[in-house]
Please model this.
Amino acid sequence: MKLFKTLKNQKGFTLIELLVVIGILAVLLAITLIAINPARQFAQANDTKRRSDVNAILNAVNQYMADEKGEVPAGITAVAQNIADPDIAVADDGADICSLLVPQYIAALPTDPTIGDEEAVSETGCAGVYETGYTIVQSADNNRITVAATPEISGAVISVTR
Model:
């Protein structure tokens, strides 16, 4: 009977027990967030998209050059320029190659993932004001074309040259 009375008087966990469990859960949550690091995951995803976009733009330029017997699209110079409408580019000298490439060589001109909610620049977007966030330059030495993007995660610039 004494045992029954003792069990009947206990009605839950003690404050110490609850604090220990909450502390353990907090430590596990902190370890999980550090291991997953959502901000880094999003930045890596954006950099992967940039690598894909840079390759797609350069492939379209190369296809254009193949059809035009090696002629580089107008607007690409030996000075690195934003692939953008010249009206909004820095110093009004953007490489306006959209109308030359879209839709024949690429369905739509891709844009950097950090440029607002803007999607790829379609054929109708080429006639308006657009900005891709990528740069393009032609080497003065060997006429090779380089398309580049600025990564979110520190490191080397994302670029492809052909």
